Each structure stands twice: as structure tokens, then as C-alpha cells.
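fold description:
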Amino acid sequence: MCNLKCWSLRALYLLMMCRSMQISKAEGNGEILPPTIQKIIKGYNKYLRPFFDNGPVSVGMSLDIASIDTISEINMDYTATIFLRQRWTDERLCFDGNKSLSLDGRLVEMLWVPDTFIVDSKKSFLHDITVENRLIRIYPNGTVLYALRITTTVACSMDLTKYPMDKQTCTLQLESWGYNINDVMFYWTRGNDSVSGLDTLQLAQYTVEDHFTSVSEAVYETGRYPKLVFHFELKRNILYFILETYVPSILLVVLSWVSFWISQSSVPARICIGVTTVLTMTTLMMGARTSLPNANCFIKAIDVYLGICFSFIFGALLEYAVAHFCTLHQLGSKEVPKYEDEEAEEERNGVLAALTNSCSTPDNINKMDSNRSSKTNTDRKKERSKHSGCASPMSVIKRLFCIFDCFHVKNPYHIDNYARFSFPLSFIIINVLYWVYYLYF
């Protein structure tokens, strides 16, 4: 009984092996493919491009931008998911009928396809869930439609001098890797309308202002290759930065002005406001630079504004230091005896008198000589010119003394009064110049 079972199992195994050999043989002969596909594939060489001996093959392209996930200023690149569609005509794939054939994407391995690649791509991958996202469609006249779903990270050179009021122009470049312009020609199927999806695209920090396409050639040492370029212009939305950086920095500057209305005798209060605003502004400046590249080649607009605000805050702290020093100096001068002030005044007058005598002594000598030698009128005019030339340095010295007296603060409490007016006015003027320059120039 056991022997009978063993023989039956062996016979079943042999039958299954023979059936599998028949199936594999049929697959090798293409018997499981439809007749139309068998006719197309029969004698087809995928290693030779179409029109191999009759000029270059024209490949038309179109793009559908599904999403732009991230735009990084630190790495200077963007990540996008695109649908790339390529069309070309292969005379070897013509067949009878009026309907197109949609084939499984895995059959693309049996056909010739362009060797298109994305220039400046840092990393890319083809989506493969649940299967590889490929589409292959053949039309009766031999036209082939080949579509792919790709996510790619592409480099984009950025000029951040006007950040965050900047506009960036990025590109997506498509080239042929091995076929030069004598073998393959690229073109956009519908011109600027060949790229779609940007009109409905929503980005976090940017708005797509404009986009257009162009056709060019890439020149390398190995030859000239066809190239298609898609340009798109991005404008940064500034509202986020106004609320996140500009408004807090303005409020910190205004807060530093509060010390102008506090009495100079309240030293802890004014020092506390000055130091706190300086430290807070420093923290705000460091936080604004975390999302930006560390390269020193860019002096950005936001750095300029934060530097202006920091200068005003630090200037408010220095203003109190100057006012407090002048107050202490005035209190010390009141304790000096009155006769010392009189001596200083007499010493100043003595300096002026000595300078006057040094100029008048030559004049007196010249007058005595003129009486003795009876000089002519022309000589007297020369003497007057000499006297006036000596008087001009005297007027300059007197003006210098007046200028030095102007720097002497008679009432230190007036410094705060001047600061209450000068600091806000200068800050408003600088703000107007800043925004006009970076928004319109």
C-alpha cells in the first residue's frame, strides 16, 4: 500500500515538471503574448534607436508638477514630485488598427527608450508602490508615450542679499546622457504650456510668479547634447518674517526708549532695561540665522535691519552712560571753589592776550620805522595787510573755543530730552530708507 502511494506521488511530480517545461517553452517563444504584441516585438532590437540611419529621432516632453515639497536655503535646493512624459515615433512599432495599446510598465524593458536624465539632481527615485509607476502606450502609427512618476532633489543657486524680500529663479533641466544632437532632438510638446500644475500649487513660504520653458544645447568635451530647461520664479511671502522678526525687533527698540522717561537717579531701572533689551535682541538675531546658510558671502536684508535695531538699542544704553557721567561731572564741578574757576578764566584770557600781543608787537615796530623813514602809502597798505593776516588766526582760535564750549553740557538732564526726540525721528527715517531700497530697488 505504501509503495502504491509513493509511485502515485512520483507520477504526479513528473506530470507537474513536464507542464512547467511546456509553459516556460511557450513563454520563450512568445506564445502567451497577444498576436499584436508578438508581431511588434518580433525582430525588434531595443539597443538600436529609431531611424538609426535616417537622422535623429525627435523626443517631445511635457511635465506635470505634482508638488514642491521643500525649498531649502541652507542646502540651496528644492524637492519636487513630477510626472515626466516623453513622446517619440518608432517606425518599427507600427501596427494595424485605430486604437492604442496600453502595456504594463514592466514591458518597457523590451523597448528602446531615451536616456533622459535630470541635470543638477542630487538624488532621485522612481516610485514603486504598488508597482513601478511607469506608463507605456503605443499608437498605430508607431508613436510611443512613456510616462514616469519621479521625486527629485535639484540644486538651485540662490541670491539671498534681499532675504526675506527676495525672488529666486530655479530651473529643471533635462538632457540626453549618451545621444548627441545628431542622434536625438528634444522639444517641448506645447511650448510654455508643456508644464502644468504650478497654477494650483500651494507653497509654505513662496508664491510662483512666473514660469517658462526654453530649448538649448549642452556642450561638453564629448559633444553637443540636446537640453530642455524649465524656469520658474519664486517670490517669498514676507508676512511670516514681519510677524516673526521685524515686529519683535521694532518693539524691542521702542522698549529701549522707555529709559529716556525714567529719572537718571534710578540707575538699576535704566541699566536693567538697557541690558535686557540688548540681550533679547542678540537672541533674536541668533534665532533669525538658524534657518540660513552660514556662508559669509551674503549680507542679507534681515541682517541689515537687525543690525540697525541692535545699534539703536545699544545707543540707548550708551545715552544713559553719557548722561549719568555728565551728571556726576556737574556735581563734582559744583564742589570746586569759586576762585579756581576765576583762575581758569583768567588763564584762558591770558592765552588770548598773549596771542594778541604777539601779533600787535610787530605792528608797533613797523609803525615806529615808518615814522622814522617816512614810508610811502604803498608800504602802509602792506602793513595793513600784514595786520589783517595776523588777525585771521585770532578769529579761528576764538571760534574753536566757542565750539569747545558747545560740547560742554550745562544741564545733563537735557540729554534725555534730546534723545526722546532724536532717537524716534532717526529710526523712522532709516526705516523709510530701508524699506524703499529693498522693496523697489
Remarks:
- The mean pLDDT is 82.
- The chain has eight helices and twelve strands.
- The longest strand covers residues 57-72.
